[in-house]
Amino acid sequence: MSQILKNDRFLRALRREPVDRTPVWIMRQAGRYLPEYRRVRAQAGDFLSLCSNPDLACEVTLQPIDRFGLDAAILFSDILTLPNAMGLELAFETGEGPKFANPIRDLKAVQQLSVPDPEQAIGYVMDAVRLIVRELDGRVPLIGFAGSPWTVGTYVVEGGSSKTFSHIKAMMYSEPAVLHKLLDTLAKATVEYLAAQIEAGASAVMVFDTWGGVLTPATYREFSLRYMQNITHALAERYPATPVILFTKNGGAWLEDMAATGCAGLGLDWTTDLSDARARVGDKVALQGNLDPSVLYSPPEVIRREVGKVLESFGHGEGHVFNLGHGVTPDVNPEHVGALVEAVRELSPAYHKAG
Questions:
Q1: 67 is catalytic
Q2: Cβ(275)–Cβ(313) under 8 Å?
Q3: Domains in the chain, please, with CATH?
Q4: Tens-place pLDDT, residues 288-326
Q5: Which residue out of 9, 21, 41, 105 is catalytically annotated?
């Protein structure tokens, strides 16, 4: 599905083409900090019901676009909808986060997993994508997304969130072949899932590697980056015009390796300096980020100052997508997000020749 976009700054920035100002969108831009989101969430009853209702998922996806005039929308969903569609029985416990009833702990459990047909097993996501694209009517592009195989793997092996990652790291060191089989299956499922989102109308896709940063350099390359590269290569063969963004939280040490995957853009958290990152990766990829989300607790004049620092850090030229270094936190004042977006609009044209 293709459409004519009225605002394609985000896609042009990912292609490192001239723009009149730096495009801006925000990770977790649809979320609990918005009162309109909280109303829809209450209407849905619970988080999974919200994710699986295309009409409501569309509504909350569009809320930050309507409110702030951002340069891209991102599908409202969750990285764990995919393993849930693979039969792993996901539930969200109040105050405890996601839980899987039957964690994957051995080869037999891995062998029972198969790659689902996304339209059959998780069709509500693609229905939401189609509906969002229709309702956006070309205002801005839609970003689809998935979790990285390693990150999704941490949840399905641990059975939920973890601070120590004891089960998956034990598997990684003592039974690496079992973990590789699991990650390979998750990677193949992720390719099909993202491909289905692209077919439904997503203009770009992003892979969130939230927990890659808990690995050593060697294990990161073997168990996380390797599978993200497989995803990037597979999508590039099928959809060469659709950019892929990779984001590893706390992954600043591995930017050169990430840039070599063939992705279009790298998301950076706030622990990496943009000017250093740009010097390291050159013109291989666009860079996305990377304001510390905690800046949004500050008054608007401080937000404006810190936005200016991020823009100055990247410097003049193309290939920057402004974003936070991670998601908006639930207790942020929405007006502060508005101040961020306004500051990017006002300050960034000075860094671009186009306009």
A1: no
A2: yes
A3: 21-270 (3.20.20.210)
A4: 999 999 999 999 999 999 999 999 999 999 999 999 999
A5: 41
